[in-house]
Write a structure and sequence with these properties.
- The protein is an alpha+beta fold and 329 residues long.
- It has seven helices and eleven strands.
- The strands form three sheets. It has a five-stranded antiparallel beta sheet with strand order 5-6-7-10-11, with helices on both faces. Strands 1-2-3-4 form a four-stranded antiparallel beta sheet.
- The longest helix has 23 residues.
- The radius of gyration is 22 Å and the shape is elongated.
- About 2% of the residues have low confidence.
- Bound molecules: zinc ion (2 copies).
Length: 329
Amino acid sequence: MNDSPSQKNCPCGSGAEYERCCQLFHKGLLPKNALLLMRSRYSAYALDIPDYIIESTHPSNPRHSEEHSQWKQQVSQFSQTSSFRGLEILDFKENQTIASVTFTAYLSQENRDTTFTERSYFEKIKKRWYYQGGHTTPGRVQELVIPHPLRVLPLAYYGDPFLRKKAAPVAQVDDSTRKLIAEMVETMDAYDGIGLSAPQVHQPLRLFVIHTPVELDTGQLARGDIKIFINPQILNVTSSYITKPEMSLSIPGIPLMMTRPKVITVAYTSIDGTTRQQQFTGWEAALILHQYDHLEGVLFTDRLPHEQSESITPLLNQLEQRMRKAHDT
Ligand SMILES: [Zn+2]
Ligand SMILES: [Zn+2]
């Protein structure tokens, strides 16, 4: 931490004195927009204020389920082993409740200069902006600046009544359906997801999008083509099963092993309005069944055997409480 408040200039690079800039936020003033929050978080890292980093992180962020003392320690360690040399804002987009900031941070660690570029996402809950998460790219990647308007949608998290509604059929595939689909794809990609259903973005419609999972030779999964399922129906499932890990964007940070039918047959309407019938296997079948469950108001955690579901109940309750608390204050 080479930059200290005594140097006067705020580490966020605004040119203003720390006392008239980020210190106001570190002392409790709420940043009016996500860009100010982003800057005040950067200066909190520079000045080793881990509490600020933690309290300004979105309640759904998986790190909240860790011991906060451990998280604090890691933030502090990063602060103490890095010099924060500057910040360049490449892009900032904000709507009523969602924002993104793309920035390059200039650091040095062990006397070596380094930079990283991150596209960060923010969500406003009540009157307060929170840092939700980000995509980091080492080095400088100009292409990260996304030219079109921000279309990432707020997610529904565990405890949200939208996740428990049975979704209604899509009456017709029109411009508003296509707009929603484009926004869902953007949202899925923003959060590094491989599948997203309409109820997860507060739209009670029978519709989901996936990235076709591609299994690499290494056994890892790559994100393949995007597929869109409108008004899907599961026509048939085999009686043989496979067990694979699953995650849900609505329940971040809780990966679980799930057993699902190995082969399924699905009828659905595609984005051009035509109906199709197709067989899916393995990862793709599991992913489709996971998304289909969302349309029925079912979460993957509901499908766990009793003992296992008991063991994750505390984590689910914590997530629900954090989200509720953020909405209540
Ligand atoms: Zn500042
Ligand atoms: Zn899910």
